[in-house]
TrEMBL record:
<dbReference type="Pfam" id="PF09371">
    <property type="entry name" value="Tex_N"/>
</dbReference>
<feature type="domain" description="S1 motif">
    <location>
        <begin position="637"/>
        <end position="706"/>
    </location>
</feature>
<dbReference type="GO" id="GO:0005737">
    <property type="term" value="C:cytoplasm"/>
</dbReference>
<dbReference type="InterPro" id="IPR018974">
    <property type="entry name" value="Tex-like_N"/>
</dbReference>
<dbReference type="InterPro" id="IPR003029">
    <property type="entry name" value="S1_domain"/>
</dbReference>
<protein>
    <submittedName>
        <fullName>RNA-binding transcriptional accessory protein</fullName>
    </submittedName>
</protein>
<dbReference type="InterPro" id="IPR012340">
    <property type="entry name" value="NA-bd_OB-fold"/>
</dbReference>
<dbReference type="GO" id="GO:0003735">
    <property type="term" value="F:structural constituent of ribosome"/>
</dbReference>
<dbReference type="Pfam" id="PF16921">
    <property type="entry name" value="Tex_YqgF"/>
</dbReference>
<dbReference type="InterPro" id="IPR041692">
    <property type="entry name" value="HHH_9"/>
</dbReference>
<dbReference type="InterPro" id="IPR006641">
    <property type="entry name" value="YqgF/RNaseH-like_dom"/>
</dbReference>
<dbReference type="Pfam" id="PF22706">
    <property type="entry name" value="Tex_central_region"/>
</dbReference>
<dbReference type="InterPro" id="IPR023319">
    <property type="entry name" value="Tex-like_HTH_dom_sf"/>
</dbReference>
<dbReference type="InterPro" id="IPR012337">
    <property type="entry name" value="RNaseH-like_sf"/>
</dbReference>
<dbReference type="InterPro" id="IPR032639">
    <property type="entry name" value="Tex_YqgF"/>
</dbReference>
<dbReference type="InterPro" id="IPR010994">
    <property type="entry name" value="RuvA_2-like"/>
</dbReference>
<dbReference type="InterPro" id="IPR055179">
    <property type="entry name" value="Tex-like_central_region"/>
</dbReference>
Amino acid sequence: MTNIQFISKSVNTESINIQNTVQLLQEDCTIPFISRYRKDKTGNLDEVQIEQIAKLQKDYEVIVKRKEAILKSIEEQNALTPELDKKIQQSFDLQELEDFYLPFKKKKKTKADVARENGLEPLAKIIMAQKNDDVDFIATKYLNENVINEDAALQGARDIIAEWINENIYVRKQLRRLFQRKAIITTKVVKTKKDDQDAQKFNQYFDWSESLTKVPSHRLLAMLRAENEGFIKFKVEVDIDEAYDIIDELVLKGQNPSTPHIQLAIEDSYKRLLNPAISNEALQEAKVKADANSIQVFANNLGQLLLAPPLGEKRILAIDPGFRSGCKVVCLDEKGDLLYNENIYPHAPQNETAMAMKKIRSMVNAYQIDAISIGNGTASRETEFFIKKIAFDKPVQVFIVSEAGASVYSASKIAREEFPNYDVTVRGSVSIGRRLSDPLAELVKIDPKAIGVGQYQHDVDQTKLKEELDNTVIRCVNSVGININTASKHLLSYVSGIGEKLAENIVQYRSENGPFEDRKQLKKVPRLGEKAYQQGAAFIRISNAKNPLDNSAVHPEAYGIVEKMAKDLKISVNDLIANKEKTSLIKPENYITSEIGLLTLKDIIKELEKPGLDPRKSAKVFEFDPNVKTIKDLRTGMILSGIVNNITNFGCFVDIGLKESGLVHISQLKAGFVSDVNEVVKLHQHVQVKVTEVDEDRKRIQLTMVV
């Protein structure tokens, strides 16, 4: 099987599209570049499909490599028959390959190995032949100094048979199918930990049982965490009689003197070898699926967070609220640069409200502030009420901003590099302000896991999580495009074809030579060659560039075509841009070349109509209910405005202006059945909710959106 055939089984598109995509990937083209600028070669595959092809190509390479290693190992043991060689060559299933290799795998000395050393393999073969031989009598011929009687001989023969059954590829396949269909996961509390305070959050799993195939990802990960922390024990099992029936069918040849011995070997093989291995496989398979599910939830949430509406280039006063330690206030210019910082103490115990109001008014006037950004942590609502009491000389919008991960950023190497002369409180406040003006540019500086928009992110496969989150950040950055003259090196490093080192070089070049005036200037950046330029140029924007196309998503390789379009219309490129009347006259089929096809040309015309359009919406002001300040203010039946601040498989959490977010269970998102939470809500969506239950002691709030 070729790699293209292997990938075709999972990706629904023509083989030529897969072949072209694999070729582009092997030529070191990035996924954003391929999906945006090579649509005619890929058949308009999107980034997710191209990522899938890239992953499947890696999987194929892993299988081929493993196959070579297995064949080499068996060959070195002089055990490779033409039949086995053919089976291994034709298999592209890692699990099946490992089954083929199992009898030849180097392992610790087994009971069967000891029996073979004692000369009992011929006896095992006689029993397995299942003829009408008197096996009890035959066993007497195999006695020696290590095998002292017939029972010992027969036991040794059964040990060998048990291993053969364990290594039988058909037995393993059928048992796997049984586990996939009918495995039950059962949990029991560890008695000595039952009253442990930390164990109580897992109390629903103290005595729990459900189908392994149906257990939701968040529940399986919770059970695994509870087991890892030593609070519960669990088993994955199927009906033992059904398992025996499957093996009997494949191994037994009817009733004969050997049958009782083989049945004993079957029971031993299942309990000692097959059940532990296959049940562990089933659990690991379920864990892989749960990980994939949770990682996808996290990636979806992260994507929505990164593409949250930006306020844009405005002057912002940002506040990291607090009580005893006061509120740290910073003033930022349109570019997000720090202009001024100081502390105010409007809340208890200091209660310097009048002084704080005076200072805020003074800062708003002195630094011509357009908007105020307040972190949503401790004292957030109190600070919002305080700010809204101030009579400003001009309208100033007030926003509550998620400060998740701000403290992680403020103590990071990135923050120290940006603000070497300021402490963590100032850096955290700056982050709160910048998140309002451009969430994407600010949040790329923070480890996505620290942003806290997922479920059980610390329990999933960390390598796969990082890979998926990195792909999500890359996808978001390149879908928006970046201003090369204002972007930080951290934002630049996610641009297609750039990476960390080139991002540093771009920033260095910018500081030494001033702002970039056109895209071609990128080629003067040290170590930025033709390939990096090809991959990255179209994702950067240069406002007020000499060539207006430098501030669009049109790739430089297509500039000549746009110039020809303008010439044919007898106008300049400048006059063609954002001129729908003229772009509607363009017939894309007239401009097809060997490199640029119809799909790309249609994209170019669409881009000319609205060049450099930011796909994100604009930031909107949101107000919580002013009468709800603590959980004690909540009453069942209250209708409140809220903001979705986390999405999981079992529902979404909504910020209603308290320290504690409320849960809208998936069943309460809307009338009727909901299979996917993301179909109903998005992160940061403004929603109306009704309070259905309040548990003050456990600080839990149940909400419904069916209002």
